[in-house]
Amino acid sequence: MTTRQSALFALFLGTLGLLALSGCSAGNPNMSAAESAMEQQNYDRALANVDSALTQDSANVDAYMMKARILRQMADSTMPPNEYKDLFAQARQAEEKAIEFDPGQRSSVQEQRELQFIQEYQKGADTFNEARRSQSRDQFMRAAAFFGAAGAIQPDSTGPILNEAFSRLRAARLSESGNMTEEMSTVIPILERYIEKEDQPTKNAYTILSQLYLQNEQPEQTIEVTERAIDDLSNRPTHFRFSGTRGVQYAGTIEAGGSSRSVEGTVPGRIELSTDEGMVSGSFYKTEGGKRQTKGRLQVTLYKQGTEAASGQSMAVSDTLSLSADLTSMTPLAEIRNFRLNALNETGDTERAMRAYEQQIERNPEDATYRYNYGSLLLNADRYDEAAEQLAKAVELDPEDPKKQYNLGAAYLNKGVALQDSLVSLRDSLTAKDRNPTEEERKMVKELDDQRLSLFRDAIPPLERARQLSGPGDRYRQNACSALFQAYVQTEQTEKAEQVKECAGQTATGSGGSSSDGG
Questions:
Q1: Quick check: 209 and 218 in contact, CB under 8 A?
Q2: What is the pLDDT of residues 406-421, one digit of tens each?
Q3: Which of 9, 56, 94, 467 is the most buried (most CB within 10 A)?
Q4: Are 356 and 344 in contact (CB under 8 A)?
Q5: Which CATH number applies to 29-199?
């Protein structure tokens, strides 16, 4: 069963001393020498003496226990986070060897570990809070060291792992060495370990890991973690979570789905709702023996799909804590879905990406970015009619974006060029038959030509708008000018074609299609 820690720094503990388990060194000169060297803080010599004792007797329980003590004391004199954490991990391994040879040691070792865990976790929390106040990179790294040590002491506890990752992330953002991306990449294996061990990872962990994968050009890993996140978070029930002072009793009323109910419980607590749509509200107060009380702290948070919808906290007075949220307007997984879509685009799996965009547009039909990206994929796949439909809607929703205007114009223009190619082929075929075309064939040529001209005319307004919206030197401006030159030439607007020729860099020739720019 996974041991979960409470939210970051919810732990509030007094200073706890650790009980030292001192091994008996009598009768073994190596053990006595190790004890003496440790008192002098000569840890290398102390470890060498302990290893000599273990060479003589590989089942020496006292030697393993002393080795653990030496390694932990060494950590106190070592600040680099990786070294600090590694020394605690080595100490645990030594204790495990002692337990292997003497199972009776397990209970005392476990008791000591619990105290050590609390101490390191609290040191991490205190240092992190100090680092937030001072915005010190070094302090964040120290916090990471303490959390790493706590995780090494109790490897199945996920709280220290997550907090170590957050500490390193904050340190990386304050880095002045120019290696911020490289430092952030060290967070990836820590978050991977957290998500592997945690039954219900936090949404922040999913989001940050997805973003780091994308930054490190790992689209397949991004797809994997985002799909897991979407599946996990979308199946989590909407709920109120009660935290604060452990043991505080609460009572109140919840209104959701058009009904109201009374609730009561004890911190920490959780109450699930049967709906994740519409307005949800709650009013709560601390109680004891049926009466309101002033002692303790009560915090209530409303969550939808792992995302905070509303939160409130009562102070040490007999007040009522009220909070409400419109869950219908929330889209908790939008950012994670965007990461997945970006990763799909990077893999080049166009069909899979287009299916994903279709699903997103069904969920969010008024999202201009989804429409634009989907339309751009369709355009690059030469599915011009579908592309124009999506891009026209994107322009309707966001008319001031030159990229959307340009790609809509490109959809019309490229289909016009494709029809022009078909028309040329048809005319060549008719000429090769060495006879006059039939009336039906003439009609077919005229219809294709009319459709071609109509498409070039349809392309002009969005391309002109893209040119207007793009600043001087913007690549979209030159692309728009180049495409406009083609459209003007094809529709015999010679004067306008000359006006955009310079803007187009005089590279346009009046043939060939325009490429789209996806985003």
A1: no
A2: 999 999 999 999 988 8
A3: 467
A4: yes
A5: 1.25.40
